[in-house]
Amino acid sequence: MKREEFSSSLGFVLAAAGSAVGIGNLVAFPVMASKNGGAAFLIMYAFFVFFICLPVMLAEMSLGRHTRQNPLGAYTEIGKNAAWRAVGWMSVITPFMIGVFYLVITVWIFGYLAKSVMGQLEFLAAPDSFGVFINSNELFIYMAVVIGLTFLILQGGVKRGIEQAARVLMPLLFLMLIALVIYVMTLENAELGVKFFLIPDFDKMTGKVLNGALAQAFFSLSLAMGILITYGSYIQKGNNIVQAGKMVAGLSLLVAACSGLLILPAVFSFNPDVQLSELSESSISMIFTFLPKIFLALQTNIGYLGASFIASFFFLLVFFAALTSLVSIIEVPVASLMDGKGVSRRTALYSLGGAMIVLAIICALSFGRVDLFTSLTSYGLGADGLPLAKSFFDLVYDIFYETILPLNGLLLCLFVIYRWKKHNFDAEISQGNSTFAGSLLQKYINFSLGTFIPVILAVIFVNTVATVFFGKNLLF
Ligand code: PHE
């Protein structure tokens, strides 16, 4: 059977940008940047995106296009031994499990969207609503809708499903983001937020912050999840991989920077005296507890209906971003099953989707509803010197997102440079890019992927294990 393909380079760029632009860009980035040095963080982040993440991205895309396979197939075909095959398995299980927790968060976002549209903004802005909401039965209705939409897109296949959805949702997403930025700029005291975001504070650049920034850039570009290998396998041979990769990285960075210009002015217009310590610690608390309060406060200017409209608009934006990311991550195991077992897209989707739904339900029940899942285990070190209690959701997050992601990235670099070999990698990129061979870029990519990038990823990996599981941060 002929492999499915994106219709053009633009089709790939939109689909990959759909994967990259997600909750990470829209919320996690502004929160991190504002706490860690504003523009200094942005500059570091941009540097990481182009000098560390982009080479990894190109390696994944080339590996996919060369083998025309999912990650498991690609590692098996070129690795030719059991060890590399095991790495291939890890590259398929990781996105499957990250997909589980990302599905749960996407369901929460959709729930907040639905509630804002139904005029329940006041409920969302009340102090305990988030806890009440994530433990309500309603959640399962929202889950059914999100799963339905995701399946509908994936069922359409590469061109008519994934690419088509990205062609509609991504331009809408950009327009909505710009419209919201323009709107918050008109609010009183918005300029304080812009200043706060754009004035660099280089003193904040500690090892810990740099580690966080790189991990965030990695996650945000959907690296080491097998996504770009899989999407790469749908790129046409004549397309220019380097140009496409640069565009995806650039778009993702642009959205992150614009989101800073959306979130911070909104926060400062709500409270011009806001202190750093009051800003949410995590993107979850920012989206689900902090922002609803800000939206509700808009009612003094534009009435409750106006405030609900702005809130709905924002949640729709985040929902589009999350949906295209969710689609990309589920496509990885789906493609693996289709390639590996020769089953149809529908069979792959329904069997994997079924397993994913069961796990997502367990995640959703692990916030207090079912004791077993809520206090599943404990490890690490809390402020009180005792291990931290961890739920099923925490466990999935800590293992697959925090720990295995940098490990997968590290192994991928070693695989491409030392197993697949530089000259094969270069030959693949050169198809559709005649000036690549012999260029400075080629030298940089080959050198970095074979030397300092895997070293940096190894440091992140070791430090994450030490921090998360043993409560000891090794970086200052
Ligand atoms: N890039 C996404 C983000 O920034 C992360 C992601 C992609 C998560 C794909 C899951 C699946 O939110």
UniProtKB/TrEMBL annotation:
UniProt keyword DNA repair, yes or no: no
Pfam assignment, any one: SNF
Subcellular location, record wording: Membrane
Residue spans crossing the bilayer: 12-33, 39-59, 87-110, 130-154, 166-186, 213-235, 247-268, 302-327, 348-368, 399-418, 449-470
Main location: membrane
InterPro entries referenced in this protein's UniProt entry, alphabetically: Na/ntran_symport, SNS_sf, YocR/YhdH-like
GO cellular component, one term: membrane
Keywords of this entry: Membrane, Transmembrane, Transmembrane helix, Transport
Membrane topology: Multi-pass membrane protein
Taxonomy, superkingdom: Bacteria
UniProt-listed NCBIfam families: Na_transp
Protein name as it appears in the record: Sodium-dependent transporter
UniProt organism field: Bowmanella dokdonensis
